[in-house]
Design a protein that fits this description.
3-stranded antiparallel beta sheet, binds cytidine-5'-monophosphate, globular
């Protein structure tokens, strides 16, 4: 894998582009997409099953802890020893507070977003959640234009619209709102949570991409910076929302193997998301996640006994067409600066 550093006055962000083989990109996109689908189903299942209910704010903290441990292990691999990893983290995280604090913003926003997912999935069924959450592709595209000055062609905006037509069709399927009648679910609360999560997702994702590609600090250092703040802000969330429950029942109250599976899936999903953003971008990530709607809906049909409708098939087809249209090659005139780009191995 290689890092190409490109200084371009017309497009100042990102300044660092990472390249990887198509096979590797497809691999991380597939793992992330399948993982998102599994995560949603697990989360939805554990919020509806009978028995002692775990405290969701603690799960958000545990996911951050797991991601921090994995990122440190990746740094051990890159630095080839634990001592060198500690020095690397000390130099880049603790001795560089201005740079580290840049990750405070996405970390807090992701923490809010991750908590909102629990609120949304406690009040909406998995299919409705997944489909509505795809609004994040528009917020991501808008933030990409605003923060990264990304050039999105008319065909690509059209592809985003087609994607929406597709997810709308999936949403309109007869079974999509069937669980609204559940007395424990509040559709309006679920919808408000998901809309807020879309804004958080768009902003935090693009901000992370901007910081990651705006310097040559490694992905794993960026992740360590972010997850440290994530643990602190997550603990603040536990304290403000569930202090009484934790004091009464303990931090790990209600932790079944399914909840640990959520911690595993949530952390794998987060780490793969960061790799996907490094090698592609947030918009491509959004398209890939759209596939997980289809997969999780199919999972939902089997798990919760729903039927696959014609509208669902049409919606899925439109999502595929959108992905195809968005990925169509564009004729771009070569920039003179690209010929002078420097390339260095990572
Ligand atoms: O729904 P969305 O794609 O915005 O979710 C991104 C997820 O990836 C969040 O749960 C966030 O915590 C996680 N993430 C991460 N590390 C990054 C970037 C995102 O764990 N570097």
């Amino acid at each position: 894998m290689e890092v190409a550093t490109k200084q371009d006055k017309e497009e100042p962000q990102p300044v660092v582009t990472y390249s990887a083989s198509l096979g590797f990109k497809l691999y991380v996109l597939c793992v992330m997409t399948l993982n998102v689908a599994g995560y949603i189903l697990l989360l939805r299942y554990t919020r509806t099953v009978d028995g002692p209910m775990y405290i969701s704010t603690t799960t958000v903290v545990m996911i951050e802890v797991a991601k921090l441990i994995c990122s440190l292990l990746m740094l051990v691999r890159d630095n080839r020893s634990i001592g060198a990893m500690i020095r690397d983290v000390y130099k880049n995280v603790f001795c560089n507070p201005t740079d580290t604090f840049k990750m405070c913003i996405p970390s807090i926003i992701y923490m809010i977003q991750n908590n909102l997912a629990f609120v949304a999935l406690s009040n909406l069924d998995a299919g409705t959640y997944q489909v509505t959450y795809q609004l994040k592709i528009v917020t991501t595209a808008l933030f990409s234009v605003a923060l990264l000055r990304k050039n999105i062609s008319w065909l690509q905006w059209f592809a985003i619209l087609v994607l929406f037509s597709g997810v709308a069709c999936v949403q309109l399927q007869p079974g999509a709102f069937s669980q609204k009648s559940d007395p424990h679910m509040n559709f309006a609360v679920g919808l408000a949570a998901i809309l807020a999560a879309c804004l958080c997702s768009g902003f935090a994702g693009v901000y992370f991409e901007k910081v990651l590609k705006g310097s040559d600090t490694s992905l794993w250092i960026r992740n360590v910076q972010m997850y440290l703040f994530g643990i602190v802000s997550g603990l603040v969330g536990v304290y403000t929302k569930d202090y009484g429950k934790v004091m009464e029942n303990g931090f790990f109250y209600g932790y079944t193997p399914y909840v640990w599976a959520i911690v595993a899936a949530g952390s794998i999903g987060g780490l793969y998301t960061s790799v996907v953003v490094k090698y592609t971008d947030n918009i491509i990530k959004g398209f890939s996640t759209a596939i997980s709607i289809i997969l999780s809906s199919i999972g939902s049909f089997y798990l919760f006994g729903k039927n696959i409708s014609l509208l669902f098939c049409l919606g899925s087809l439109l999502v595929m067409v959108a992905i195809f249209l968005y990925g169509m090659p564009r004729k771009v005139a070569p920039k003179p600066s690209e010929s002078s780009a420097t390339t260095k191995p990572v």
